[in-house]
Give the backbone structure.
Amino acid sequence: MQTPEPIVESEYDDLGVPRRAAPSFWGVGERLAWVAALVLTLSAFTGWYAGTGEGVDVSVLGWHTGVLGKLVFFLGLAVLALVVARRFGVTLPAAVPESLLVIVLGSAAFVCTLVRLISIPDEFFFAGRGVGIWISLVAALGVIVAGLLEVSEEL
């Protein structure tokens, strides 16, 4: 009894054109969106302002800076939910490209963080900008870049 030889797929198709690798399920844009959205969400619980008040070192979390700090958290959470939903096969209508939604959410988070970076609330007059607000700003930029990468992957 003769065993059949295994079928080896060629690097070229029938016309001699090199085969392209199958696109990965998680593209670069989607991976960056996942990481940047996670960092953005968690950055709302980092020290946006730090300083010394009445002899004590104080750090003010982004969550405690008012509506904008909370909005940054929920915008990051929305991007995370979008990426997870896409992972499980839930898609948006064709009229709303997911990459555009990622860019819009990232831009809104960037603007909210930029407002808090420029304008320190009056309650925190004693504090300067902490490392957390810079992390939020970079993470929001990362979400925007991820959306732009997703657009290029869709083309």
Observations:
- The first helix runs from residue 28 to 43.
